[in-house]
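Hello,

I think I submitted the cobalamin job twice by accident. Can you confirm which output corresponds to this input? Input:
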Amino acid sequence: MIMGSNLKYFNSEDAAKILGVNVSTIKRWTDTGNLECIKTAGGHRKFLMSHLSSFVERNKKKNSKVNLFTLESEEDIEISYRILKGDYQFLHEYVLKQSLQCNRDKVQQVFNGLYLGQYPLHFIYDIIVTPVLHRIGYLWEENQLSVIQEHLASQTIKDCIIRLQGIINIPEGNEEKALCLTPSNELHDISLKMVDHILEIRGFTVLYSGQITPLEKIEHSFDAYRPNRLYISSTTPDSRERLRRDILQLCDIAMERNCDVYVGGRSFDFLEIDHSAIRRRLYTFEEVNRY
Ligand code: B12
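Support: Only one job matched these inputs. Its output is below.
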């Protein structure tokens, strides 16, 4: 909540969420003078960032694992607050900036904070990760980033996505098994990694063969692992004809084995493929979660 100039005031509910305690605890702490605040004419407590940060500073040891993540600086409190408020515009800018500086810890903090703040994984991928990656691509296209900067930033994001998976609750496996791959010289696999995570949360066992999966003798793997779903991701093929051939080959192999095929990625905008093994083209991670 912004009141006047640049001063930001938090109310008791905000302070409670940020510090990871009940509102009644906030009241007690202010009454005992442990946590500073400003009282309005109406008797409401208002908190400045400095009130919260000096409290966190003084209570670092006993309070080091409050709420979403370790709160040790004003920046941490700011991020926690933006996450709780769902300020995606701010979070985009922040993740973009931190990924361009290769600050894994900062990017990770946002991803973990969102997840621990009860945002569904598909939402984090659709609303934060995808637009930031698109922004990186746009900056590169506009010559505002060099290709190495683009690599470093997108790799930072990919690494943080993979680490996020480490804190996610994966349910007992169900009977479903999914094979995830990108065919035909395709290096873009961040979408596929996110698909993998969402399927794991749904209880799938995931077989991830990732970038540029060789199709030679791939039917042996279908027979050995018996996936009942195949997820194919393709973003920018070096040869449309080859991609078309690869997808048709995969669909034939899948169909013979009662394996449903799901496809995603911008290559499918121009690739007109009609094969009865293909159940759906998926556009968002919310759809990956739903179907
Ligand atoms: C990161 C990145 C790379 C990384 C990839 C790293 C990795 N491990 O993935 C690296 C640096 C290797 C790379 C290489 C190249 N890249 Co690149 N790259 C990007 C960037 C910045 C992000 C891609 C990404 O992950 N996006 C995030 C995903 C989530 O978004 P999305 O791709 O739009 O996918 C959405 C849906 O399609 C869907 N989806 C996608 N796949 C799947 C799969 C399934 C199963 C499902 C269910 C859903 C789904 O989910 C998303 C949600 O909407 C994009 C910019 C952009 N606009 O995306 C360029 C971009 C994709 N790259 C591009 C290009 C041209 C290349 C290169 C050819 C460059 C070059 N000359 O070398 C090479 C290709 C090399 C190769 N053989 O594949 C172009 C593609 C242009 C085009 N129209 O084809 C883009 C758009 C950049 C640009 N603005 O020009 N790239």
